[in-house]
Amino acid sequence: MPNVAVKPTYDADVIIAGAGPAGAAAATHLARLGASVILIDRTTFPRDKVCGDFVGPAALIELGKLGIAETDGFLLTNIGRRGAIFVDGEELISKPFPAIEGMPPYGRVIPRYVFDKFIVDAARSAGARLIEGTRVTDCQAGGSAVTVELVNASGGFALRCKLLIGADGSSSAVARIMRGLAPPRCDRFIASRAYFTNVDGPEDRLDLYFDGTCFPGYYWLFPAGNGEANVGLGVALETLPAHNETPAVMLQRLIREDNALSARLGNARLHGKIKSWPLITYNHQLPIVFDRVMMIGDAAGLINPLNGEGIQYALLSARWAAEVVAPCLQSGDFSALALAPYAARVESELRYDMALARLIIQLTSNRALTPVWIEVFKILAARARKDDQFADTVSGIFAGLTPARDVLKVVGGTIEEAAQTLVTNAAATAFRGPREWARVSMNGARIGLALAACAARDPASFAGWLKCAAASTFEFGAQASKSAAADMAQAAVRLSRKPMG
Asked: Which domain holds residue 430?
């Protein structure tokens, strides 16, 4: 008998694991392009998700492209027009978000059980099929298809598709299966969040708090309107020494003890329970594309630990992925090479900022340095009160309007000097012994002694911290050099086009 080619069968062109902002947005974009899309989520909608609920200006633009920003329910959500930063209960700066061309000078605070449903409804309207209460247990990418193993209350089953997109959050099963390992502990954060009613204070102001007892972490109060607010805390999983409180217990204590926060919550009532959730930050060494598989949003680690921003990157990565997948749907090529432009886009847009954020978090994760870093915050805030440009940069970073790299342009050598003083010199001092400690200044000796005590108490962990700090410094240095070279090349091009004479 002659050989007869059998055309592969698919349940959908694209299966997306996870119907949060990244997954539902990607489903909307792809369905509008004509792709058949199955969107899978382990829960049922509407559903809650631990998050700060802040939808920044860049995210609002993406929602406009999805057609969500004009819906009646969306326009009723609370607007945040300004931000305030507090350190140890003292207000350091309170400013409106800066006006930047092409972006709204405000964000919105939308509880995730409302926000996620907005995007899921858009995906359904575009033609995506939603399967709820179902989770991914395995996936195998072959030559012509991806087989996705699933399980729900009725049992296990499998679906076949041309492309699988992992959008299943920081605990992504797709990422773990494809990479063959869990994310490193140094990439992990823990967030805890509570909702309060009858909250005092301005409803258009978003408050961010820092306190030496939870460093390197931060906590927030984001009003959701009608006297309600999202109150939460994010803290690195790996600190030296480790915190002796869970994030939920730490948040409860800070609510009681922080004068600024307690002033807004003095008459408030806790609504529901404090919930916690793991978060994974970006690690450029972990791949986000494979043959017929890609990761977006939290599953790709697209969370900035400096400001906790994740929704903006979820929506952006969803669109970037759809733009790369569109020609793949035409050509039938879903190889890692064909999907590589998506990974390149993530790197070009985000790697520099993520490298800076990772370096700062790594340097501050040694709690022996916390008092000095808190003092640095106060010094920089004092400058912001006098320097409107710097203040705009700070509030812009907070709102997701301004790239984190712009801090370096405004602060100049402050961060570099602080890093050298607090880490390079202090770490060296810690290992040189008492004679060297006596030669440094009072503050330097205090830092060196604290680091020396830390090294003596847990040498292995201290060595691990130094290794991670060195790696983060190298990564940031490489990205900064690449960015500087690109800036110089652009300047040279502009100069060459300038008429002579």
From this structure: 358-497
